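New to this. Please check this protein:
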Amino acid sequence: MYVDMGNLAADAVTLDFSVAGTTADQWNVKVSQIPCSSNYRAPNKCVKYYTGASGTVTSYGFPGNTLLQNQNYESCIRQEAGYCSILWDQSTVTPPADAFDLTNAAMADQATNNVITACGKSFVKIPNAVLGPTSAPITAFCGEVFGVEAQTVANSFTSSTLPFTLSTFTGAGAANTLTTFDPVANGYSLDYVQQAC
């Protein structure tokens, strides 16, 4: 997790952990400061930062099959030399894990793309994602499949918008306001492959 902060001696970052109930859990947290002029520094507003021509981006909590509530952050992928677009796919995971399981699917195992009317509780955004050169761009994705509205099969989407980003939003109650056919949202795991110019 990258946190932007000022560069003055009085600037500080505070980490707060909120745990419901009683617990004996402990954490080891490593904190590294990165010089402002560093070439490996994440761009401003990028909470997650990925490098390399391919990789996997997951939502916080995904390894534990948990969709965290009240999240609003951006994952950024560094554009590698010679690459001008990025291809996104739903990851292949071992059942019972589900690689794309956000809230608000109209029906079981269906994709949803309308952030205004359907994706209010949780969604991801990829700027100007398209299925092909002649398709209209889709920006928001929610539901139970990373795909086109009302479809039950996952699709691959390409974006040429720079910088390469994937935004994540989950509201209060995102994990527990689902339909009767999917009582628990798991989050997402999406693979990316940068495409040559």
Q: What stands out?
A: Residues 177-182 have pLDDT under 50 and may be disordered. The chain has no helices and eleven strands. Residues 48-196 form a domain with the Jelly Rolls fold (CATH 2.60.120.290).
